[in-house]
Description:
Order of helices and strands of chain B: HEEEHEHEHEHHEHEHHHEHHHHEHH
Oligomer: heterodimer
Number of helices of chain A: 7
Number of domains of chain A: 2
Distance between the termini of chain B: 59 Å
Number of domains of chain B: 2
Radius of gyration of chain A: 22 Å
Amino acid sequence: MEEHILICQDGLDGIFTAIYTAYEKHYRPEVTGIMTAEEGNLRLFAVYEHILTDPVKSGKVLRTLQDRFGEEGFYTLCLALASYQEDKATAVYRTVAKGLRLRQAAHILFRHADVDVDRVQKLKFHAWHEMHQLLGFVRFRELKNGVLFSEVSPKNDVLAFLADHFSDRFPGEHFLICDVGRCLFAVHEAGKPWFLARDTHFKRECVEESGDEALYQELFRHFCHKIAIEERGSEALQKGMLPLRFRPYMTEFTNSFQNLK
Amino acid sequence: MEYVSRETIGLKEKLGILSDAAKYDVACTSSGVDRKGNGKEMGSALASGICHSFSADGRCISLLKILLTNECIYDCKYCINRRSNDVPRAAFTPEEVCELTIGFYRRNYIEGLFLSSGIVGSPDLTMELLYRTLYLLRNQYHFRGYIHVKAIPGADARLIEKTGLLTDRMSINLELPTAEGLRSLAPNKHRRNILTPMRQIQSGITASQNEVALYRHAPRFVPAGQSTQMIIGATGESDYQILSVAESLYQKFALKRVFYSAFVRVNDDKALPAPVGGPPLLREHRLYQADWLLRYYGFAADELLNEKKPNFNILLDPKCDWALGHLEQFPVEMQTADYQMLLRVPGIGVKSARKIVQARRSARLTFSDLKKIGVVLKRAHFFITCGGKQMYPVKIDEDSITRNLLYEKERLPFEREQITYRQLSLFDDCRFGPVQEGVGIGWKSIS
């Protein structure tokens, strides 16, 4: 039996187009994989195909998934696709294929004994967990023009989820969240819907903080220092709850953002 | 009403003094209420709560936890802010609290405000100040984020009611588990004064829920429920007494949470114990474990402890301890056992029990499936069978299982490096004083 591997663009659109193509060509899900980057280790008996992203096809898949998996199921699939792991697209594709055979597609997500479903749930949990951590760990700085600016560097591509949360929370604020690793920006203008933008030439040196900013940063650092109970001190527990990789972007663990590379 | 704040000290010092004074309050949760933004005002709340940072003791920082003032007319022996202590005193004005909250919230430093206060003048005056602060924050600063406020025992019922309509969570500290303890360490506080407002808030919440069911936009009274806190280890109560108190608080007062706070000796007072080796953290940990068993696992306090065995086993967590005492109910067959029984198996938590129930509808579970689901097999395998078979052929026998469970060392959250069993016993179990240091601690002597 021939093994097919579809190579597509990363992101919902690309992967959904690949899923559409796999269905269109009647490939068998068990021996079909979807990759979002070139294979480093080519397989001898697999046929590789490059898929061009097609918004019409991906739109059809998106609607089908929303209809058949319901809001919660679709959310799970999206979070799993936000993962940074290479096998995410294949796992989601196979889960979708198995789910669509059922009368209630979302019920497939309860079959935890299934390898692909289990993988999707694990990917989803990891992405969700990082997203949830960042809901708290994002630190905004007020710039001279009143815009709130923040930088994050998540492993999973969770920027859209963050933007959704913060635009709901701060409807009257202009804010900008920058995913440093992906050069992605979530932009929100007061009273308007947010959007994502890519900018590879962003110069962080141009960022200038407002007059009050230094005071509030200092107040918060002082607060974090004072709120700890010395007798209970436990660095290990703190590290477990707040891993070091988040700290370069957090006010209370840096002296000043201007020194950041 | 004339209210004087100390203009002479800066905002930073004030924040330092008043957060330092508030840090012994445990509750820093921002959970229990789901409130989407309204598209205009700032703020929202998530039912799960969000931790915004973690301090050097590993505790979460979710709310701006401050006192309105640390001046206090009471003289509770365990409290750093008691009248007879010579500590720097400060007070915030309601406006300052609002400015700080908004400034921090906008930068996503915090999830909301936790406001408590020392007693200035009288309970009524203090409660009114708290109310005024919240009123300003909600109505003038249009803050929709999370607020947790203390209800002051002895304050007027109407003040508490008005405050409850502005806040998300309210709490009144029980302080000490028994009335005798309270009498000896907090001479100005009375059990009745604490329980009366607790009851008032409870009935307020029920009434408000009924109202909201009828009229969707009716104002919500304390929508995230009420909580309380007890100090552990300052007086001589047994774990059984403490847990029973917690259980009755959950059942009779419908509390959302009871917090346990390991006693930290901040004052040198002859009425206070001097715990060897720091605060009784293991005891606190065991109580939290048992607390979860009460709230999510369907256990009763009597099942875990009793008059004859009033304290927790220091070497085993309460669930393992219970299971070892009830081996006649094991092994449990994963394919058929009901949800309640699954929850009672050591190594299976709420999530994995739910997943097992979901997964076994469509498949016969194997041990490797259980591992994928998240069951901690190194603890669970003594107590379960899959398809009638055990994972390894082990005898269901108290001695051998205990030996094996102890061999797999439990991970404790506060554990420092190279802590030994003997150290644990020294500062934790009241029956193992320094006198018995030489006695070998077999588990038998404990359980």
